[in-house]
Amino acid sequence: MSFVIYLFQSGWIAVIALVILWAEIALLSVASAAPRKRFMLLLPNTLSGSCLLVALGLALTDGNLFVIAAFLGGSLLSHAVDVASRLAGHASGFKRQTE
């Protein structure tokens, strides 16, 4: 149990999660018929998650609040890019047509 506590107190849990996250995107991209396209589709979401995990690691180790805030802002920006890219193909469905 003390090892789990150590992982959280030292911030290593965030590093482990980052490695798993990037290994997952690499595996999904390589397994795809179009690896580069798949990677580019997954990149904004992965960057958003990465920023959140870095902010978590910094917070767990009493990091600088401004740096933590910067990573949280980066996560929000990456998330906005991800949502915008997902909605781009559905833009015509959001137009209101009235008579």
UniProtKB/TrEMBL annotation:
> Where does the chain cross the membrane?
6-27, 39-60, 66-88
Transmembrane as a keyword?
A: yes
Keyword annotations of the record: Membrane, Transmembrane, Transmembrane helix
Q: What is this protein called?
A: Uncharacterized protein
